[in-house]
Amino acid sequence: MSGSNSFDPAVPAHDPLAMTVHTPAVTLPDAQRKRGRATMLLVLLACLAPVAASYFLYFVVRPQTRSNYAELIQPTRGLPADLPLRSLGGQPVPAGSLKNQWLMIVVAGGDCDSRCEALLYDQRQLREMMGREKDRIDRVWLVVDDAPLRPPIAQAMQAGVPATVLRVPREALTDWLQPAPGQALESHLYLVDPMGEWMMRTPVPLAPEKFKKDLERLLRASAFWDRPGREPR
Asked: Where are the membrane-spanning stretches (predicted)?
């Protein structure tokens, strides 16, 4: 009979192994691993492509057709994962919690001199100038000493949408942010993108109307991948 040699008559018919078809055990897992790696790579590229494209358009494609007011930091400098941030109450704050928003950063001591007050005022006004895009920007004040905040300044930082106020040792912060030659760390407004990359530093003194144009261009260039992220503190 055709096909009668497909099994051994010596093996009992009820033996469950008699008709088992064996395939190599490693073939399927290896294929699955390869497909998994390829899928992860495609997802990673899909996430990074819009960011890379917007920065490419801003920094490379049309560099001669625009005039930046603020200084571009090239290459950008990433937020250190181990930056020792603390809340005003002394609790540690993960550096990564600052990501997912554009940040306008002021650096100053807790006593906040006249230069500090002027930068904090311009910081608030610049955010308001962004209109409906302002929710994509957080105001951040990094306090580089243990001096208590003067009550009027502390109250102003909580007015409207509260700013993020954190303490950090000056020496640790300088591993990330740096002033222009001949300027103090406290002299500038620093702009950080949602990935934690420091990428702009304003001139001294700051002209808010001019810096506003830089902000508008950056927000337009990143509009298709950046959305309001973390909640302000």
From this structure: 41-61
